[in-house]
Amino acid sequence: KNQVEQSPQSLIILEGKNCTLQCNYTVSPFSNLRWYKQDTGRGPVSLTIMTFSENTKSNGRYTATLDADTKQSSLHITASQLSDSASYICVVRGLSGGSYIPTFGRGTSLIVHP
Amino acid sequence: DAMVIQNPRYQVTQFGKPVTLSCSQTLNHNVMYWYQQKSSQAPKLLFHYYDKDFNNEADTPDNFQSRRPNTSFCFLDIRSPGLGDAAMYLCATHRRGAGDTETQYFGPGTRLLVL
Questions:
Q1: Which of A16, A48, B40, B66 would disulfide-bridge A64, Cβ 3.0–4.6 Å?
Q2: What is the pLDDT of residue A76?
Q3: What is the pLDDT of residues A81-90, one digit of tens each?
Q4: Is the minimum CB–CB distance between B111 and chain A shorter than 8 Å?
C-alpha cells in the first residue's frame, strides 16, 4: 500500500531560525515528489517538485532534497519568517497501473514565533 | 488572478439537509478533484473527473455525489450531511496529457459546518 509519512507532526521555532521537515514514502514505482504549503483555511500551494533524477530543488528560502534510494525527502526552511507558519504537506505520485493519483502525507504543522 | 474558485468559503448546514459546494476553474484543466480534509489530517480524495469520466474512490460514502456539467465547473453534493461530514472540502485541478506539469492546483476550500 502506498504511504507517505511525515515528521515531526508539529514544530515550533523562533523567527529567523532554520528548520528541516522530513518525508518518508513507500510509493513505488516512483514518479515525483512535491512539497506543498497550506496556510490555515486555504488550499495547498506547490513549493517544489522533484523527479527520480533530482536530489535537490530550491525555491527561495525553501530547499527540498530527495534520496530515491532510501525513499526519503526533506524540506529545509532557512531564516524562517512569521509567514512560514503553515502546514507543509509531502505528496508523492507513483506509476501504479498508470494512475496519476498522488498520495498525501498528513503534513507537518509549523509555527514560527516572533 | 484566481484560477480555482470555490464557493462559498464557509457553509453552515443542518444535520440531514442537502448541501452543494461548487468549484470553478479558469485553467481549462481536464481533471478536477474533490478532497475532504479534516483537522490535522491529509486531504482524502473523494472522487475525480477526467474530462467527463467520473472516478469514485472505493471508500467514498454514497452520501457524496458529484456533477461536472462542463469543463469549468464541478459540484459536490452531500445528500444528507452528518456531523462527521464537517470538514474542509478542497477542489483541485490538473492537466493530464500534453503539457502535463503534474501539478495540482487547489482552490481555497469550503469549510463545512454541520449543526
A1: A48
A2: 98
A3: 999 999 999 9
A4: yes
